[in-house]
Amino acid sequence: MDEEYDAIVLGTGLKECILSGMLSVSGKKVLHVDRNKYYGGESASICPLEELFSKFGAPPPDESYGRGRDWNVDLIPKFLMANGSLVKLLIHTGVTRYLEFKSVEGSYVYKGGKISKVPVDQKEALASDLMGMFEKRRFRNFLIYVQDFTADDPKTWKDFDPNTQNMQALYDKFGLDKNTQDFTGHALALHRDDSYLNRPAIETVNRIKLYSDSLARYGKSPYLYPMYGLGELPQGFARLSAIYGGTYMLDKPIDEIVLGEGGKVVGVRSGTEVAKCKQVYCDPTYVPDRVKKTGQVIRCICLMDHPIQNTKDALSTQIIIPQKQVGRNSDIYVSLVSYTHQVAAKGWFVAMVSTTVETDNPEAEIKPGIDLLGPIRQKFVSVSDYYEPTDDGLQSQMFISQSYDATTHFETTCLDVLDIFKRGTGEEFDFSKIKHELGDEEQ
Amino acid sequence: MSSGASGGGGGGGAASGGGNSNHQRGAAQRPNGQTQNKICQFKLVLLGESAVGKSSLVLRFVKGQFHEYQESTIGAAFLTQTICLDDTTVKFEIWDTAGQERYHSLAPMYYRGAQAAIVVYDITNQDTFGRAKTWVKELQRQASPTIVIALAGNKQDLANKRMVEYEEAQAYADENGLLFMETSAKTAMNVSEIFLAIARKLPKNDQSGGGGGGAGGSSQGRRLAEGDSGSRGPAGACCK
Ligand SMILES: Cc1cc2nc3c(=O)[nH]c(=O)nc-3n(C[C@H](O)[C@H](O)[C@H](O)COP(=O)(O)OP(=O)(O)OC[C@H]3O[C@@H](n4cnc5c(N)ncnc54)[C@H](O)[C@@H]3O)c2cc1C
Ligand SMILES: Nc1nc2c(ncn2[C@@H]2O[C@H](COP(=O)(O)OP(=O)(O)OP(=O)(O)O)[C@@H](O)[C@H]2O)c(=O)[nH]1
Ligand SMILES: [Mg+2]
């Protein structure tokens, strides 16, 4: 460990692993350390099942749960948008080679106490029970507008300026009612709250386009999920980093981040060993005095032996409960994966209900989500603090990621990573640095 | 489609050289309608202490080369090679460790879904044999229950400096149901043989070769590639 590195990365969560990979690929000498003896930190998938039970202080699972090692239970639920930034990162870095994915079967939205399939194309919109007949026609016109919309061709904007006019104005232009706005904004554009209504429409139009482009890629739903759980993602990027020379040390406690002149980081100490470095990249847990708590996220892991009702027995699905439907300020997310993704023993399902905490009784807040699931065999609830760095890291050269938010997709994760990379290196990540053509490792 | 193209488009062909490679991609139809060949694809991982010769074995097998001063592995970690076996073409997707095992930090993802593993030790170094046993245990605990494991006692050309007896290793392999050979990446002794022995032992008809768990079912995922709509992943892929 007593060596000098360009960058030391602390924590092997997804964000840190992507950063580590990008830094190694950019020619930096990287040391990547985790205090745990497994990869993934907060974004690990817990295996075997016994480990999950003991982590939450529950008595060990009985035989009905099958073999413990057949389980890989995520601590943080998320799906990948098939055309989203994480998939682009995976493809451009070649990390996709180490992983396999399945399409999520369905995407549902909650309205008036029951769930309906999120309509995504004109055909589905016409069949949807979310809207009445007139509204369907208007929604259809809206979808066509979004589909034809091209950011650099004002002709497609149809007398509407998406850069100055807000989203509410665009909804009004098409006469969409509050219900339709609700599922469009939350289940298609995946906004977490309603503040987007007052921001320029272009943002939401692009998000809806991302949703439908993602859908167009693999059908069924716009979401993908990795076999063996989300914990495979950080491991994949760690392998990328290692292939480009990154050094990996798990199970290594970090005792001190050593600062030099002007509060600039000069190294990291573990016991008596000190590794020198010019920069540190880390998650909030390694630097409690340099982050501020900005909120809380509640997540409830539910083990079940059946799919969710009214989802056509989907083996994987997402349900979004728009805030307004249940009188909240932020949406409730439900995600379901199962044995078909090698994350549970045969016949088993793992549902996760999560949201941003708004009251001092968070468990009551997720009740509308829990109520959709039917009988639950085992429930594990966690409330975790959401941290953000207190500064941009330019002075200290310590670049800190934000905690994982309640959204069930990775778009915010990637934005954070790309932003940190830019702050740390002063440049955008250059994808062309990766010799990623499929044959490259076959030279 | 029965062959799992690892990524869209034309890439992914087997590395050239090697002598026995076969570039056929699908079950080619002969003019008379007979099926000539079926293709099975398997993920094979290499494990073992640093400097025992993992990369050298792969380089010998895939390209027929040997470097006296083979650098510690970085940069290249994923090669393919095909072997013809009777009426079957076996395509190995070979993973090298990328050095992550050096500080006991190999990611389980590495041997996830692997249908075969070669655990390598250096016959001139007793410690590497001990480490090999640890890897075998780890695979038996973590990897697919049907994984085919081969033990390779490498650097056989240095038998005059031998520290691990052939019989000792053979007995250990027998106890644990492993294939065993002493190899030399330098002289090529037993290198294609050990891959061939693995190829013979691999199941060539069942769909569920891979997978860490007994979940089974239609367990296959897909690889993602630019601009395509998802090709089937090779892990677990086999002949139909
Ligand atoms: C051709 C046709 C036949 C229908 N037949 C029946 C029927 O037999 N029985 C029945 O209960 N409902 C009938 N309806 C109404 C329909 O089933 C729903 O009530 C209507 O679609 C309301 O949902 P919406 O969200 O589309 O309303 P919106 O599209 O939001 O309604 C838009 C506007 O149209 C008005 N509107 C809605 N429906 C009607 C209507 N039928 N006549 C006049 N104005 C209307 C609304 O008040 C509103 O101002 C019919 C509608 C149409 C277009
Ligand atoms: N004499 C002899 N030397 C060998 C043989 N195989 C490998 N070597 C040498 O052993 C050294 C290490 O070989 P590598 O193939 O790099 O070993 P490795 O297991 O891939 O090492 P890491 O990548 O560090 O994990 C190199 O100098 C090789 O030339 C062999 O069969 N005989
Ligand atoms: Mg090597």
TrEMBL record, chain A:
One of its GO terms (biological process) is small GTPase-mediated signal transduction. Its main location: cytoplasm. The lineage of its organism: Eukaryota, Metazoa, Ecdysozoa, Arthropoda, Hexapoda. It holds the Pfam family GDI. GO terms for molecular function: GTPase activator activity; Rab GDP-dissociation inhibitor activity. Regulates the GDP/GTP exchange reaction of most RAB proteins by inhibiting the dissociation of GDP from them, and the subsequent binding of GTP. PANTHER family: RAB GDP DISSOCIATION INHIBITOR (PTHR11787:SF8), RAB GDP-DISSOCIATION INHIBITOR (PTHR11787). GO terms for cellular component: cytoplasm. Belongs to the Rab GDI family. This is Rab GDP dissociation inhibitor. Coiled coil: none annotated. Keywords: Cytoplasm, GTPase activation. It is found in: Cytoplasm.
Automatic annotation (TrEMBL), chain B:
SMART domains: RAB (SM00175), RAN (SM00176), RAS (SM00173), RHO (SM00174). Transmembrane segments: none annotated. Signal peptide: none annotated. One of its GO terms (molecular function) is GTP binding. Its EC number is 3.6.5.2. Residues 1-20, 208-219 have a biased composition (Gly residues). GO terms for biological process: protein transport. It is found in: Early endosome. It catalyses: GTP + H2O = GDP + phosphate + H(+). Residues 1-34, 205-240 are annotated as: Disordered. One of its GO terms (cellular component) is early endosome. PROSITE patterns: RAB, RAS, RHO. Keywords: Endosome, GTP-binding, Hydrolase, Lipoprotein, Nucleotide-binding, Prenylation, Protein transport, Transport. NCBIfam families: small_GTP. Belongs to the small GTPase superfamily. Rab family. This is small monomeric GTPase. It comes from Acanthoscelides obtectus.
